Amino acid sequence: MSDKLRVLLVEDEALILMQLETLLEDAGHVVVGTAMNAADGVALVYETLPELVFIDLRLGDGSSGLDVARAVRDLDGITAVFITANTRQLSGDLEGAAAVIAKPFSGSVLEETVAFLEQCVRNPPPMMAVPHGMILAPAYQASWAQAAG
Amino acid sequence: MEREDAWRLTDQLHAGTGKGDPFAAAVRGTRMPMIITDPRQADNPIVYTNNAFLAMSGYDRDEIMGKNCRFLQGPDTDRAAVRQIRDAVTSNRDIAIDVLNYRKDGTSFWNALYLSPVANEAGEVLYFFASQLDVTDRVDAHLRTQQEKEHFEREVARRTRDLSEALAAKTMLVHEVDHRVKNNLQMISSLLALQTRTITDPAARASMESMLSRVEALGTVHRRLYQSNNVERFDVTEFARDLATDLVRGSGREGIRLHFDFEPVEVPVAKAPPIALMMNELVTNALKHAFPDGRPGRLSILVAPDDKYFSIKITDDGVGMPVPVEISGKRSFGKRLTETLARQLNASISWQSANPGTTVHVSLPRESAVSSET
């Protein structure tokens, strides 16, 4: 499939990591790497240069997904999405990430989110509605308006 | 008037002219310490003192006559108070002030000083008349009250700080527990989702998917719980919107249109999980039975308060159900779950024909605690 995305997963819960991996591969995307702590995550960002990164906010070894998001922000052309059970911890600009998915999410929300993000990365702005379990970063939304104008 | 006369007017009154003067006698005999000074002499010296003043200050008369009053000051006398007294004298005003003075033996006392100028008919100030009162007890009591007040305020501030810290710790703990609950629910649904994929038997797979849907409904409750700042109440309508949207999208049934008719209803959070599970069963059931073979249609969900109760109505315009389907005479697990949840919530459920389709009407009390502790 020519539309398949190269995706990096940074999540320290094995089961959630497995579900993400499975769902992305079922949707025809390629998981180019998985990390369970921030240091590995940052290293893999540079190593694999993915198109899309899912980042858990609270990571293994007490590390923070924010550090991974900052590394992503320093590089062009990578879309970061947070997955977290505490959305309150994130500031308004989401550290440069495009969106947040609140845990716990359902399988269908995750599927829709992946479809939505595929449009975000491949053909912005996306044509489909924002999935209801997802919070889009205001700055990211504004960038489409700018591109369209 | 000559100085000699002034002298006579005061200390010498007991002899000579003042002997029979009742006012002079009153000044001499009163228990209130009094002195008179003469501002027309250099350094405004004392020209009269009564016995009460001598008793209070501990000095003999000849030790203080002709001296300025400043010998009453000491190391802890407030300089600003002294300045105020001096200013009053300079500008011929009267003044009432509490000032810390010292006795001859060096002990201090609080002196409620009242000082007033005495002028002749021409307006010239001839004397200053000073009455004093040892108010040490009053001032000490005041200072003690002040200290107690400050101590009390410090104590209140300390306890408020302790309570704020305790509250912050508690809030952090609640958020931590909330975080773990959400994460664990996510793990359970991930586990079910992953296992479901490996099952090939359609019936077994359908059961697993029902289970996953129930766990996800509980997940939706917990995601909603702390999104509002109210940790004790739960908004049924916001939850119903999330749940129904999720179920319809998850079913992949693009021909099903959702319609919401919501009035705000809040319930105690303890009721949220059973309500969530019940709505999950009812909406899932409608999707499964009302619209067979990819039949398109409309599913409306109404949530509205009704006095001490509130209603949830789920109406489809599908094929219509001959009352809930019972498979081979046994109640399905979904039906049994729905009925038991209704008992827990003290809710009544009725199925009515909606021509076309079916309406499920659930009526629930808003406030009373759920019958089993959750």
From TrEMBL, chain A:
| Statement: the UniProt record of this protein carries the keyword Transferase | no
Q: Where is the Response regulatory domain?
A: 6-118
Q: Which SMART domains match?
A: REC (SM00448)
Tell me any Pfam family this protein matches: Response_reg
Q: Give all 4-aspartylphosphate modified positions.
A: 56
Q: Which InterPro entries match?
A: Bact_response_regulator (IPR050595), CheY-like_superfamily (IPR011006), Sig_transdc_resp-reg_receiver (IPR001789)
Keywords, comma-separated and alphabetical: Phosphoprotein, Transcription, Transcription regulation
Q: Does the keyword Chloroplast apply?
A: no
Name of this chain's protein: Protein-glutamate methylesterase/protein-glutamine glutaminase
> Species name for this entry?
Methylobacterium thuringiense
Give the gene name: cheB_3
Automatic annotation (TrEMBL), chain B:
UniProt xrefs under SMART domains: HATPase_c, PAC, PAS
- UniProt KW keywords: Chromophore, Flavoprotein, FMN, Kinase, Transferase
- Cross-referenced CDD domains: PAS
Please state what the protein is called: Blue-light-activated histidine kinase
Spell out the molecular function terms from Gene Ontology. Answer: kinase activity
What PANTHER family does the database record attribute to this sequence? PROTEIN TWIN LOV 1
Q: Any keyword RNA-binding? A: no
Q: Does the keyword Transferase apply?
A: yes
Q: What positions does the domain Histidine kinase occupy?
A: 176-368
Q: Which InterPro entries match?
A: HATPase_C_sf, HATPase_dom, His_kinase_dom, PAC, PAS, PAS-assoc_C, PAS-like_dom_sf, Sig_transdc_His_kin_sub2_dim/P
Q: Which residues form the PAS domain?
A: 19-92
Report the residue ranges that make up the PAC domain in this protein. Answer: 93-147
Which Pfam families does the UniProt entry name for this protein? Answer: HATPase_c (PF02518), HisKA_2 (PF07568), PAS_9 (PF13426)
